[in-house]
From TrEMBL:
Superkingdom classification of source: Bacteria
Keyword Metal-binding included in the entry's annotation: no
Record-given protein name: GNAT family N-acetyltransferase
PANTHER family named among the record's database cross-references: AMINOALKYLPHOSPHONATE N-ACETYLTRANSFERASE-RELATED-RELATED
UniProt keyword annotations, A-Z: Acyltransferase, Transferase
SUPFAM superfamilies hit by this protein: Acyl-CoA N-acyltransferases (Nat)
Length: 147
């Protein structure tokens, strides 16, 4: 599944070969706060293998990765990860187009609720999600544990 977006931007499924360019995008995106444990090539390749229909990239006319949005689900709830758009391409609806693709797949398989984690000091990211109609959850505190 590929389509063309305005200005020659192509949206397609992410493949493991996109990892290096995607990781470089994530590193230069303020607020991403990447942790090495689960953002390795192997970790992302596993996510792509388990969720091939809900992980997307947008590429510029030269084929370089300029945006990503990764979706996964646990069978009842969906999650978004690594939604990022290169700074020079923001404001063109690319991020919204990527997440709408994920929404469509989730709806088709019966997922009715989606979650995302946004780092507390990522104010630009928080504003993006608020504009997308998302709400914060003041009733939960997120914990994680490294194995």
């Amino acid at each position: 599944m590929t389509t063309w977006h305005s200005e020659g931007v192509r949206i397609r499924r992410m493949v493991p070969e996109d990892y290096e360019e995607a990781y470089a995008l994530w590193e230069r995106t303020p607020g991403m706060h990447l942790q090495q444990l689960n953002n390795t090539y192997g970790g992302i390749a596993l996510l792509l293998r388990e969720n091939p229909d809900t992980c997307f990239v947008a590429t510029d006319p030269d084929g370089h990765v300029i945006a990503t949005a990764l979706g996964a689900n646990d069978g009842r709830k969906g999650y978004l990860y690594h939604v990022a758009v290169d700074e020079q391409w923001r404001g063109h609806g690319i991020g919204t187009s990527l997440i709408n693709r994920i929404y469509d797949v989730f709806k088709a398989i019966g997922i009715v609720k989606i979650g995302i984690l946004v780092v507390a000091d990522n104010y630009e990211g928080q504003e993006f999600w608020k504009k997308q109609g998302w709400n914060t959850r003041p009733d939960v505190i997120y914990f994680d544990h490294e194995l």
